[in-house]
Amino acid sequence: MTSELSGTTALVTGGTSGIGRATAVALAGLGAQVVLSGRDEYRGEQVAKDIRAAGGRAVFLAADLLDEASARSLAARAREVVGHVDILVNNAGIFPFGPTAQTSERDFDAVFNLNVKVPYFLVAELAPMMAERGHGAIINVTTMVAEIGAAEMGLYGSSKAALVLLTKAWAAEYGPHGVRVNAVSPGPTRTEGTAAMGDSLDELAATVPAGRAGTAEEIADAITYLATDRSSFVYGAILPVDGGRVAV
Question: Rounded to two decimals, what is the model's pTM?
């Protein structure tokens, strides 16, 4: 445990597994008091318990993030628990792949609701209060397919491309008030969520210079960098953590 983030609070959405879990653990390890959210209460409570057992501070808030109301409710509940939020990690997301012609309106709305609408209203709820205090960090989790055209990834990629633009817009809006907004853009990453991709994850990973899939902890390292004062002059950046895919 270190004290780099001692005295700060962090809200991590989608914190029950994968990148979110690794981020919650990493932020707590730096001294932040962490609020993690997710739908699976058992997994969420276990993550919080593990963090506390390691000497950190963490609490789990069950949340089914679907719309503006659920986003604002989570932000309010987090403030009730920790008083204010210094660091927001917009990690929760879904990534269905498939042909455009077979995409239903229900699937379309579900992706944009969680991947775009929820982060939008979490920022709307929390960033002004960060600005009033004169400091804060917001980190959005996007994807390398927000930057490239990939067959059958249009729905997911376009939702994250919206988050890329919002990252830059929010940096321009809140940066002058001391709130740094940045994003991490993961490449192929081995998590519980991507396990369903099977061999296709390895095939995708083989195309990047690193020649392998990343780990949740490697993505979390980049997120924590953007959450700390080590990145104090970084605003509106999209940090690729993709094994070099950005280079080819």
Answer: 0.94
